[in-house]
Specification:
- By secondary structure, the chain is of the alpha+beta class.
- The protein folds into six domains: 8-73, Arc Repressor Mutant, subunit A, CATH 1.10.10; 79-140, Nucleic acid-binding proteins (OB fold (Dihydrolipoamide Acetyltransferase, E2P)); 145-210, Beta Barrel (OB fold (Dihydrolipoamide Acetyltransferase, E2P)); 235-479 and 544-609, no CATH class; 484-537, no CATH class; 622-706, Beta Barrel (OB fold (Dihydrolipoamide Acetyltransferase, E2P)), CATH 2.40.50.
- Helix content is 30%, strand content 29%.
- The protein is built from 16 helices and 36 strands.
Length: 709
Amino acid sequence: MSRKKPNGKLNRSLSHVIRKVFTENPESTLNHRQVCSLIDVKENALRKLVFNILEDLKREKFISSISHGTYRLSGETNYMIGVLEMTQRGAGFVIVDGEDSDIFVPPSQTNQGLDGDRVKVQITKHGKSRKEGRIIDVIERERTQFVGTIQLTKDFAFLIPDNSRVGTDIYIPKEKLKKAKDGEKALVRITRWPKSADNPYGEVIELLGKNSNNDNEMISILVNQGLDFKFSNEVLSEAEVVTIDLDPKEVAKRRDFRNITTFTIDPDDAKDFDDALSFERLENGNISVGIHIADVSHYVRPGSAMDAEAVKRSNSVYLVDRVVPMLPEQLSNLACSLRAHEDKFTFSTVIEIDESGKVHNEWFGKTVIHSNRRFSYEEAQEIIEGAEGDHREEILVLDKIAKILRKRRLKAGAMNIESEEVRFRLDEEGFPESLMIKRSKDAHKLIEEYMLLANRLVAMFVSKKKKGDSKIPFVYRCHDKPNPEKIEMFNMFINKFGYEIDTKDPSAISKNINALLDDIRYKNEYSLIQSMAIRSMSKASYETKNIGHYGLSFDFYTHFTSPIRRYADLVVHRILQETLMVTKHQYNTELDDICKRISRMERKAVEAERESTKYFQTLFVSDKIGQEFDGVVSGVADFGMFVKMDENQCEGMIPLQDIPGDHFSFDQEQYMIVGSKTGKTYNFGDPVRVRIFEVSTKRRRINLELVEQ
């Protein structure tokens, strides 16, 4: 009696099982008999089917034939491409776009991959919650320069990187040391990494011993994030030929706003002025508001050294004691910056708007302006609050309209987040002598609303245009809806304070959070809850496929208003000008890659800025060891409790085993710290008194001890 031909479902099932055998044994060479044994196939017909599947998988290059009848997982397939993030223990996680979970890489399988590298990872195990893999190739090094300490021997040296996540020391031959001394700080570049070597080879680029501690720490922060802190000679030479004088022929091509009242409103220490507002009352009673943005695209052309450097950096980085600009200072602080009493080239969104906030007309185009006055936020705020001053009428009308626009935006569901920024006042030596919390006031919100309006109008304008039968490739600033799991965690968090929001309707979550924040605005837990609300939201990013901006409640949004400090805005300027001129668009397939890069570099800049703040916080309290402060519990974990001190807004940590009075453990269900005998609990927002016990500027850590009350 003949057997029936195996059906397609059986074939697919066996193929899946065989694929799993090879992925779980990536180093093994297996013959037909061994595969059959591993999957428990004994019948001849099925054994023949196994052989046919093996040959099919070989043709697909999923496996390769080592010799006749023996196979091994192919290095050409079964891999994913992602970004490697290293841990301090030497293991790694590969983050792959579109994958729900990261791929764990054991320390022995990182194969010369370094933190931030773009890598190929081969899957070796399929766990219940996470895949495991090994690095099979480094596609692109995220960075090759590292700051650290020289460890010198007789004939060679090693650089011990400041960043413990680098995962390896760097071997430096004697002739590449540049006379570096043992224990000296240095900037080192990896030159090669032979397959047979345990460590990469490097050379000293710059000795940092003569710099101040702050300089070295900031350089270390930047380099460890893969951010450049110097411009090349080629870029500087290109920038030096840019003059602040305007070409009369170019002026004649532009709409002239030099005789219309124009001013800037910026922080009092700002040097790069991206935007200005002009104000003109029209005969019909409406107002023409010009939102004028520095025309960086006039000076930075595609293919230039400055453009290549700008896309590499992607944005300016604002550390506590310095700005690391995207463009050389000749452009960022001089030629492009909209300084008062100077004629400047701008790219403008000009709107006709009435005092009820209704936009009647809009215009986009290249302009020339002359700023009559430079206001600090504080000066503009004084006028808003009733003081006399220059351009008082214009500022008050613009503020009135801005408040209407903001109210309308919040009613539509935009998140109502009040920004809070820790700012340090530094002495002549760069030591933080005091700190303050800067909060948004009406002057900040005035500028914010007109920038939001310009960004939205530009995005709407370009999105409606077509090139042939298809939409014009564009850079959108997108913000996805919040992850339901994160919102539930946020609800659990606010439950500790006795609050709750309705999460049944995803579209109403932002409104519900706004209502909560309004209710608790003057309570002690407000800052903590607002911070957790922000963390529960998705991260904004640059995309070519528009999904809207949830946090702003805009269907269309982009970044147009800060091209001096963001590459995204420079690209948007170019696309908008090409759209207005109906000329060929230069950006097509590469725009996706640009969006991914600038989103990634934005995250690195934020991380560098955050670490800079942590460093100066540790510096600020370094002379306060032994002093006591009131604070609130700002975080709990299985290793300890975080406390933010009220007086200085600095956060420190108390290890779990050092909490006095009981044996404490972390209750994951209740998300609190609980004493085993007394039942004493510590939770988010609890008031406590602490003493500064130890401070490490190098590790950016403040260790606290609890003062029993």
